[in-house]
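I hope you will forgive my troubling you with a question about protein structure. I am sending you one protein, given as its amino acid sequence and as whole-number tokens for its backbone shapes. Thank you for your consideration; the sequence and its tokens are set out here:
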Amino acid sequence: MSLRELSLQSEYRSDKADLVKDFYTPCLRNATQYCRAVAYFSSNGLALNVKGLSTFIRHGGQMSLVTGPKLMSDDIEAIQRGYSAKEQNLDTSLDCGFEAVFHDRLMLLAWLIANGHLDIKIACPSDLNTLHPHAVYHEKTGVFLDENDNAVAFSGSSNETVGGLLNNFESIDVHWSWDDTQERVQQKVNNFKRLWDNNTDKLEVIDFLNALAEKLLVRQTVYETEQAGTTDKPEIIEQIVPYLPKDIVLRKYQSEAIDAWFKNGCRGLWEMATGTGKTITALSALAKLRNEQEHLFILVACPYQHLVDQWYEEAVRFGFEPILAYKSSASWVNPLNTALVRYNYGVRDIVCTITTQTTFISETMQRLLSKLKRCAVLVADEVHHLGAERSRKKLTDIFNYRLGLSATPNRWFDESGTTALRTYFGDTVYEFSLAKAIKMGYLCPYYYHPHLIELTDEEFEEYERLTERISKLYHQVESSEISEALERLLIKRATLLNRAENKLTKLAELLTDKTDSLHHTLFYCAPGRIAPVLELLTNLGLRVAKFTAQESTAKRQELLKMFTSGHLQALVAMKCLDEGVDVPSTRTAYILASSSNPKEFIQRRGRILRQSPGKEHAEIHDLIAVPPIDYRQHPTATFHTERKIVGRELERFNEFAGMALNKFEACDKIWELAKKYNLLGALGVS
């Protein structure tokens, strides 16, 4: 162990170095003495050096600190406790090893003093004839020494505080005794010795307890003080007090959801219909939780970037100061890491970060989160996404409180994923269905128009081949490998249905003579069908644009504004409008990409039913591709499988039609298909 073993730089500056990791920690690990003279000191700053202190203590290290009289009140009490324990040996809680105290900054401070590893003196200007009446001790120097009297001396702008060591832009100059700057090093050593022995002109250096008895200490109600210009400017503890914005009045069901979550220990799922204000409700719950918790780390995980942006805007309204953690890690790792350190050491009482679920499960984010030592809450928007196998493995126990949001938390065709989500977040603690939302006037009513689209001969042949393969696998779904194969086949067949050629013909027919009156209309398409639909609509003379993942965030925002204002009559979209994009002005939707997955069709309907000025109801046209009505004359093994599949499609139809203003008219249109497969019961008809 020797300071000579270190590869030191003559200067450490914040733009190119981490002062703690690159300088202080290595020096502490190789030193037996640390002499420090600073204007400001805090236990938070001391705690940043825990890694170096651990080795320093094992080597019997001793730290001598001279600092100004301005100290945190709790630091003063901890220092006093340490000296009392050292002199009277009565505080048994400090009769322990370093490992028992390093996680608590105040315990660490008291323990170091009680065990003879730290001694503190207070420096005050003494010659008021030559110094300004409000002058302070403002020196910032230090010396590390090892057992062979090798010395490393430094001076610069850094205090022994979190601001000086971590957050501020600082620089220090370094010299060592084994090169040609040894005279300068020795001068620093001598200066500190004179300071410690109270032999420095214009300064009075007093033992801590004497300074306390003489009432020379200035108790701070802030965590750190930093120098700004020519006056002392304290750095106030970073307190964030979230609140319910004045323009928001929670609806009864939103308050009920919050109460239900708190009654369940702040864990559980909210099944709330799309468009009923899950984001506002969740932020209100977080504001309430923060008022009950002295410290709180909040992480909101969203499936898409545009949702992160929307959450950010709302969170700011509530008084939060979120750290956005998505896109390039270079833009958020350092700010979040700094916030985490400050949070762990009590400098910051709340941290709020909003991220994508992809970033949340990344190794970079998981490593940062593993550092959390205090209370934390996870809010998962569209929580069903986190049920995927890769994602659910990252759902760690570091979060004391958990809230999952979704209109459809159950994962389609994934029982294990659904179970994992409910095991981690808890069961549903509150449900507010779309039917309730419409009945109570929070979402607008709608008309539902199903249109059965027959497959072409070629499409039908492929459909039948896929159905036969599906039939063979259906009874073997116990096997996960076969289950995955079955799911792939179902997706392949669903894609075939969504891309059915006759849908374009039917769409053109439906739009005949409507192009002049058509406005605020969405067209949901399957992947690969955007271009043909755009071409059709353009040829009909509509002002239309595509809205896909290929467009930038700025472009999407521009398109939504043009859509809302009426400059665009329609948007042609894929899945990016399924979750989180607010298009309340939508009056009509044509669904060309049907899905039996509840998550998708419920999300799509919710997008369309949001309220908007002058909007009395919405219209939903659902183009459903099916085999020809007369294609199966006699029951076969494939027929029974078909019946199950069509039955599931009818469940989706029934979900849409069941709450529609024209329920019975919609049922009439699909009667023959249901009758063919003995599924009239699925329509609520005996």
Q: What stands out?
A: Residues 221-238 have pLDDT under 50 and may be disordered. The two ends are 88 Å apart (CA to CA).
